[in-house]
Structures are given as C-alpha cells and as structure tokens.
Write a structure and sequence with these properties.
8 strands, 17% strand, single chain, 38% helix
Amino acid sequence: MFLVDSHCHLNMLDLSKDGGSLNPVIARAQENGVGYLLNVCVSLAEFPAILKTAEAYPFVAASVGLHPNAEEAVDADKLIELGQPEKVIAVGETGLDYFRSTSDLDWQRARFRAHIQAAKALKKPLIIHTRESREDTIRIMREEGAADAGGVMHCFTEDWDIAKQAMEMGFYISISGIVTFKNAHSIQDVARRMPLDCLLIETDSPYLAPVPYRRKPNEPSYVRHTAAFIADMRGDNLEDFAEATTNNFFNLFKGAVKPDV
C-alpha cells in the first residue's frame, strides 16, 4: 500500500522522544505505507528549514507560503522568488481565517490574493486554508483566477456546497483526521459524497490526530487511520482508496516525483 500525507508540518513536530531526529518519524510513516509527504510552510522565517528538510529526503517535498494568521508581510514577487526550487511544489498554505484574526482583515485578503498571483506565475498549485471565511475565500479564488493554478482545500471542514464550488474551479478536497471524530457529521457527509478522483488525505500533523490517537500529537504515520476510516465509511476497498488518493496527489502536484516502489 502506498499512501501520501498531502499536508504535514514536519518542522513543528516534537522530536524529543525520538532523540531530536526526524528519521524515526519518517521510518514509522514508511512502515505504515506512507511513501510521500508534503511539508507545508506557514512562516517565511521557517521556510529555509522546511526546504532543507525536503531536500534531505527524496520522498518529502515543500511548499512556500504564509498561514492566514501569520503576522509577516509578503508580496507575490517574494513568493515567486522563494518558490523557484524544484523541491517547492506548491504555494501555501494560504487563505483566510476569520476565527483567529478579527477587526479589519483587508491585509489578510490582500495577502491571499498575492499567493494566488504567485501560484499562477510559478505554475504551482495552491494549498488553501479557510475558517469562518467561506464566502470571501471562494469569491477571492474566483476573482483572482485561482482555477488557473489549481490546488487543494486543505483540512476541509466546510459543507458539501463549498466543496462543490471548489471542485468546480478544479480544486481537490483534502480530509484530515477530524473526519474520525464522533461529532464530525458534516465532514463525514462530504467524505462520503466526494468523487474519489477529487479526494486527498492528510494529517496536518502535529495537529488533529485521528482516532485512536485523538488529543495526542499527530504524525504522518497516522494518515493510515484516516484513510482506513474514510474507505470503510464509503464502502471502498482500502487498497483501491490508497491508490486513488495517491494518484490524485501526483496528478495535482506535478513537481512531486513518486518514488519507485
């Protein structure tokens, strides 16, 4: 079985139990069939370390971008400059988050637009985060022509209507371990109804560990639990589900090189 963790934050993991090394984390992922990982950037200050991690492993890639709540400033030109290395296969995570940030958020919307412009220039997909900002997220995606870059709605927590609008723009929907939570009815509904050829899976580690690890630190190996849960809920064969979501990842992220297995 070959699984992809389409969104993780390797440089945020607490490695103290592993002697300060990422190698045991990677080994556990591979033991659980996770053959490729996308290490996602949320802070430009951390981008050099994120890129270095990706360059250390042939089956790890990086993105470049600022989380919507990050307080750093960036324009499209800077993102284009940083996004040149081959190991950088995506722009983000970016988007809008009205849950953590309040008051006048014009700066957040302007920065989202800059990420979309950079992704189009780089011809690399977007990784989009949206929280309590669904209407503005979709509106800005349309206004800026995000469909020209394509991408993924990461850690999707919206309803089926938003999923459909994103897919109409050619975006994939990525489901995290939240789907395994008992009260995650809306996300479970989306996961059941999703066309399999538009679906990705992720950990968003070190956050949002799936059952049976809920409320514990998450790591890439746990994406197998999310895959198994969704496949069972949909009535899909796990091997077929893994193959489909893996193919979806490499179809979207053209810069990712699938390892020989």
